[in-house]
Design a protein that fits this description.
Layout lengths: L6 E9 L2 E2 L1 H10 L5 E2 L11 E2 L7 H4 L10 H15 L8 E7 L4 H13 L18 H10 L5 E5 L4 H14 L5 E8 L3 H11 L8 E8 L9 E10 L5 H16 L8 E4 L4 H8 L4 H5 L14 H13 L9 E8 L3 E9 L4
Helix pairs in contact: 1-11, 3-5, 8-9
């Protein structure tokens, strides 16, 4: 990371556990599953179960105008970021938003593509939903709704999106482009995403949805820190084998921060694939690898998975005094060949 380590000073989430930070933290600590039967009258999907955000009505949760035709990803982001705003997050031109995604709202993009092919005039798309077809819609909606007029960026990074967003946010702070950044990731559940996942990976974990966002500030902030972001490393699997790339990524992350593997309190993997388990087992003991759940309770949350993993770390650690001051690694591997890892140091003294 550039310069002094930035710090996380707040977070919020909307997830299959419910709305808000407290609901997510309680759900992670309880270990309860969230998969529910899918309503076939609402969702035309190949699977019969999914991990959905309960009682989700953006008009009721956020209020105001301009929400009726909003895509689901943007609506989820608005609710999650709204939880941070309620905690007193900075707004204005010195505050920024960096949002990680897979490709925005896949449902809206596919709806527009279909309309352009089947309608008598391909350019006559629904103007009310046209903005939702752009990848940066969610970040833009958050900035407009909450008056955040500083840097506004959307990064497409699959499962590793939140890790890439943290690195980008650190650069904004280090360059003096912003005094604080709301950074996180979001993923929607939709019929389009369900079919893409079905054809792309076959059977597996039920799909999940939601978003988690963090307030990132320079280490000199007056707010109490929850964790320092000590470093981020990424790798690309050129030969199709994730194991050596992941091992090298985590090893470089620890070496760059001068943190021995034995000092790491917890490691969280967002996918827990066999290559990931093997690579991490070479570096860490079983207890370190199992202290924090990897997110299976809320299903496959795609681009939001690494953001939820960080939220899980903060949820578990806040109740355990022995976690204070300890390093934590969050690892994210994407099926398309990228690996990313972030090193945090939890607040407090050992």
């Amino acid at each position: 990371m550039a310069g002094a380590a930035p710090v996380i000073t707040g977070w919020s989430a909307v997830s299959p556990f419910g709305h808000g930070r407290e609901a997510y933290a309680a759900g992670v600590r309880s270990g309860r599953p969230t998969a529910v039967p899918v309503d076939p009258e609402r969702w035309s999907v190949p699977e019969d179960r999914a991990c959905l955000v309960p009682d989700f009505d953006v008009e009721e949760l956020v209020g105001g105008k301009g929400l009726r035709h909003l895509d689901r990803a943007s609506a989820l982001a608005l609710v999650a970021v709204g939880g941070l705003v309620e905690q007193g997050v900075d707004t204005g031109e010195r505050a920024g938003v960096v949002l990680g995604t897979t490709s925005g709202s896949v449902q809206t993009e596919m709806d527009h593509m279909r309309d352009s092919l089947v309608k008598s005039r391909p350019h006559l798309l629904n103007t009310k939903t046209l903005a939702s077809g752009s990848m940066n819609c969610a970040a833009a909606q958050c900035a407009i709704r909450y008056g955040i007029t500083g840097p506004n960026t959307t990064l497409a990074g699959g499962r590793s999106a939140a890790v890439h967003a943290l690195r980008y946010s650190d650069r904004l702070l280090a360059a003096g482009r912003a005094d604080s950044v709301i950074v996180g990731a979001v993923e929607e559940y939709s019929s389009a995403r369900a079919w893409l996942a079905h054809h792309g990976r076959g059977s597996g974990s039920p799909l999940g949805e939601g978003g988690a966002f963090f307030r990132l500030e320079p280490g000199s902030t007056h707010r109490a820190a929850l964790a320092e972001v000590l470093g981020v490393e990424t790798r690309v699997c050129l030969d199709g084998s994730a194991r050596p790339a992941l091992h090298d990524c985590v090893r470089a992350l620890l070496d760059r921060a001068s943190v021995p593997a034995a000092d790491v309190w917890a490691v969280v993997s967002t996918t827990a694939s066999e290559p990931e388990r093997e690579a991490l087992a070479e570096l860490f003991d079983l207890r370190t690898l199992t202290r924090v759940p990897g997110g299976h309770q809320i299903g496959d949350t795609g681009a939001a998975s690494s953001a939820f993993a960080i939220a899980s770390v903060l949820s578990i650690a806040e109740r355990l005094p022995e976690a204070a001051g300890r390093p934590v690694v969050v690892v994210s591997g994407d099926p398309h060949g990228t690996v990313a890892a972030v090193l945090l140091r939890l607040a407090g003294e050992r």
